[in-house]
Amino acid sequence: MAKVHIINVAVLDNPSAFFNPFQFEITFECVEDLQEDLEWRIIYVGSAESEEHDQVLDTVYVGPVPEGRHMFVFQADAPDPTKIPVGDVVGVTVLLLTCSYRNQEFIRVGYYINNDYVDPELRESPPALPQFDKLQRNILASNPRVTRFMINWDDVQSKPEESKNGVESMSDEPCSSNHFQSNSNGLEPRQ
Where along the chain is composition biased (Basic and acidic residues) (predicted)? Predict the structure, then answer.
């Protein structure tokens, strides 16, 4: 059984200019105290053709995490446009929010992003070289895809219970996109 459950992820400042930072308000629950930090990452998929264009926008370590409900805001800079193939700048791509414990990823939340020009003329006749300062990104926050993975939460070197390909839920599940209000503990991420 997972020791950490994501209760809600709220996408902040959306839609937004391409160069604005990504911001996520993450609410999660720990069913017991964790001995080590949680590692959260934001990954921008630069091209569907190859992982070499993926960019880890930021990584934060949150912990120690006591039992209970917690919330923090994870902010990451926009991707480096020079690392995105010109043909993949405008249109749909993916942003991944992942969390790992002891170097084992246990959850991945994926969002579709649409990058497009606000100006109708640029939309109709896009320039050969993208004009990033005129692009707007829109994260499809209402329909994230959540994948959970079985991991070993304990100190012992045993393997997690086997399931199909080690994935707890092969089918993607939607995750709540509403803001979650509570009197929860606020945790500060450590860089």
Answer: 156-165
E-strand ranges in 31-155 read 38-45, 55-62, 68-76, 91-101, 104-117, 135-139, 145-148
Distances (CA, A) of 31 to 23, 27, 59, 65: 26, 14, 23, 10
Please work out, in degrees rounded to the nearest 5, the angle formed at the alpha carbon of residue 110 by the alpha carbons of 35 and 73: 55
Calculate ∠ Cα 105-108-109, nearest 5°.
160
Closest C-alpha to 115, from 14, 12, 24, 42? 14
Q: What's the DSSP call for residue 13?
A: S
Distance of CA 35 to the CA centre of its chain: 23
* Phi-psi domain of 13 (left: phi exceeds 0; alpha: psi -120 through 50; beta: other): left
pLDDT in tens, 60-119: 999 989 999 999 999 999 999 999 999 999 999 999 999 999 999 999 999 999 999 999
Question: pTM of the entire structure?
Answer: 0.82
